[in-house]
Amino acid sequence: MTDSGKPTLLVVDGHSLAYRAFFALPVDNFSTKDGQHTNGIYGFLSMFVNLVKAEQPTHLAVAFDTSRHSFRTDQYAEYKANRSESPAEFKGQIPLLQECLAALNVTVLTKEGIEADDILATLATRGAADGFDVLVCSGDRDTIQLVTDDVTLLYPSVQGVSQLKRYTPDAVVEKYGLPPANYPDIAALVGETSDNLPGVPKVGEKTAVKWLTQWGSLENLIANADKITGVVGGNLRDHLDDVTRNRSLNALLRDVELEVTPADLALRPIDAQAVRDIFARLEFRTLLPRVFDSFGTGDDELPAAAVVAIPTAATPAADALGAWATDAEGDVAVSVVVAGGLPTRIGLAAGDDVVEADWSPEVAAALTAWFESDAPKVIADAKPQVKALRRAGVRLRGLAFDPLLAGWLERPSFPDKSLADLVQRHLDEKLPEADPTQLVPETEGATPGQLAWFAGRVAAVQRDEIAPSVASVLTDIELPTLDALADMELAGVAVSHEKLSGFSAELLARADGVARLAFAEIGREVNLGSPKQLQEVLFDQLALPKTRKTKTGYSTDAAVLADLQESNPHPFLDLLLQHREATKLRQIIESLDAAIGNDRTTPDDGRIHTTYVQTGSQTGRLSSTDPNLQNIPIRTEESRRIRSAFEVGAGYETLLTADYSQIEMRIMAHLSGDPGLIEAFNSGEDLHRFVGARVFGVEPAEVTPAMRTKVKAMSYGLVYGLSAFGLSKQLRIEQSEARQLMTEYFARFGAVRDYLRSSVEQARVDGYTETIFGRRRPFPDLTSMNRVLRENAERAALNAPIQGSAADIMKIALFRIHDQLRTEGLASRVLLQIHDELVVEVATGEWDAVERIVHDRMGDAAELSVPLDVQVGRGADWDEAGH
DNA sequence: CGATATACGTA
DNA sequence: CGTACGTATATCGA
């Protein structure tokens, strides 16, 4: 609202301003880590939030061009024909910018065949007529014609988009000598180079203004053209057609048919969660507070009714609670409040019927039968709650839906991290949350009954939206897996502090010794853990040749150091590598040692309890945190000492490891149907030897180690979308040789290439890839104009069905093994999953049964056109068992 | 103190 | 210019 008391309508030309920002801001500083350029988006939004803050509009819209083609190009094919195609890097930013504006709940207007400025002109004209103060923000000079007492133009100055010049009628007269309505007349005479509209030769602004002042109007001037003297007069007479055409083209349309009226454009609360999401994707950080400052946080404006309508939970007595649960029909949503790993309070919701109770032996007794029945239950983020119940002696069954898992399956690239996020996204409501920074929070958080109620409602919406194949992955794979993971986390794995601490001391001493030698080589002490200081030593002091560039200088990673050692041998390089190795191993040991018995939710049992993050990857794999037990070293003899510290626990007989051999290549054989590859797996021959024989045209027995290494790298590289360049680099061979290798490979295994090509092509059409079991991963960037982005997406899309199918298969094997061990009454238990390997703790006397179960269930987890080969090992510790 | 960059462990 | 992860340290700016 302005001083005048009138509402203020701000209309913005998104295209022209983003375009200016695109050229004003260095692209290097505005790119995401996967290569999406964001300079135009950032520049526009930065200007836009400032503008909104400064002008406080009550109504707001942003208009965009749809394409280069418009009614003007129909009238005059040469219109803007001199403009070079706008760069692909810019075009790719427009949809993302529009996504940002949608999150801000700002109306975006486009119309086929109409330019953004015509939309602005129409809105400005109608707005002024409807009693608005209108602000037009555009980078196109033609919009000067829109300026009136009610319409002000904000035009970016040469300094950049952040500096806007205000054009009122007076300001226009001051600059051009004529009122705004005459500006198109001037422009018609002078011409507009940027629009490819030539004017009258030798006539500039001064002459044009003089003529127009003298003759009053353009029509009158044209009518009296024969009275103009001099060369310019002749030029005018020769170019009257151009002038008329220019004037016709530079008149903005003021009556474009739009879906909206100015009154429809009232400022609306932003969708804070959507803004956070898109800004996170674009890696904008500083912009978020500025947006909240200009547009509000969207919080206070959320539908209050929904918050008010949250049911209040009844708190029945324990026995009534049991009856309530048993009698409930359909899904019952459950929310267990967990403290110190144990349940403290519980909420249940069946529809809008909500109950809750403090956890007590009586409540547990009343509900156990129901908990352990098949009655369907919905729990958001179920695993920690399932674990808490198990610690309290209740084995939950009948888990039918977890909104967090469902949300991840639908959108694995950006999973919602909490029930609050899901409530925002699916219900467009706000989950009441206590402010954790306040000792006595002003706002009460939701009670467990209310949390359950929200979870149930989110689940209902998700069930409607979820694709059938994704729903089956949830029901048939993820939920059973969750159950197994809960037990694995509770079980933990025994790790010997004694074995670790001795080794750690040894490595510390070695690292110190190596460091001293390294310092002696360079005559000073530096921090060997600082890439920055190392760069000084290597490239300045020792003047070694510069290596691969990084953002902050030159790389000093192990591959680079090995290259340097070969080309410019220096004792320091080797010492540095040794130091890195020793300190790295020591770090790992120290963090493992610190993790023994450190699970706050479990008494110290001398074991490490990792947490598997079921939503931790985009492909369907698990991830492991606190600590990560999926990246324990194995490659060097020495590092295997760490694995030997993972031991069979007291009361158990031995560890069993079981891993799939070459599961990804087998999946590739299955998906591609390549006869050669399928034969390779059915022949019983070593895979790489078989492939090597085919590729190099020799007998399998004649495949040399060098040949085997090459085809092995090639085979694995295929799964990752490896190029000839990458292959040559990895194998340290010429690119021509790598290309030759690839050609030979595909000549023998052509169906593999056909499959890889067609699967990416299919993903481009569908927008997502799918595993054998129907798990999907979206790939919006496959159609990106940005080449880096697109090619990255292509490689990931190539890999996703393969890695994802392997993950599906392992999950199926895992929960089947877990279930069968239990149903057969065996005490043995699965402890760890490392993508294609399981570690099982085998109870005394159970080896034969367990070995059979693990081997068979892994082997028959999926029916492929090639067998699934499972290698089983046995030993008192992980290292021993791993052979 | 939090975010970023680099380096490195696994499948 | 090879996919998918998590974690440690150094460094820089708020």
UniProtKB/TrEMBL annotation:
Residues 5-268 form the 5'-3' exonuclease domain. InterPro entries: 5-3_exonucl_a-hlix_arch_N, 5-3_exonuclease, 5-3_exonuclease_C_sf, DNA-dir_DNA_pol_A_CS, DNA-dir_DNA_pol_A_palm_dom, DNA/RNA_pol_sf, DNA_polI_H3TH, DNA_polymerase_1. Its EC number is 2.7.7.7. SMART domains: 53EXOc, HhH2, POLAc. It catalyses: DNA(n) + a 2'-deoxyribonucleoside 5'-triphosphate = DNA(n+1) + diphosphate. SUPFAM superfamilies: 5' to 3' exonuclease, C-terminal subdomain, DNA/RNA polymerases, PIN domain-like, Ribonuclease H-like. GO terms for molecular function: 5'-3' exonuclease activity; DNA binding; DNA-directed DNA polymerase activity. Keywords: DNA damage, DNA repair, DNA replication, DNA-binding, DNA-directed DNA polymerase, Exonuclease, Hydrolase, Nuclease, Nucleotidyltransferase, Transferase. It comes from the Bacteria. GO terms for biological process: DNA-templated DNA replication; double-strand break repair. Signal peptide: none annotated. Residues 639-846 form the DNA-directed DNA polymerase family A palm domain. It is an enzyme of class 2 (transferase). NCBIfam families: pola, PRK05755.1. Belongs to the DNA polymerase type-A family. In addition to polymerase activity, this DNA polymerase exhibits 5'-3' exonuclease activity. In addition to polymerase activity, this DNA polymerase exhibits 3'-5' and 5'-3' exonuclease activity. This is DNA polymerase I. It comes from Microbacterium telephonicum. The gene is polA.
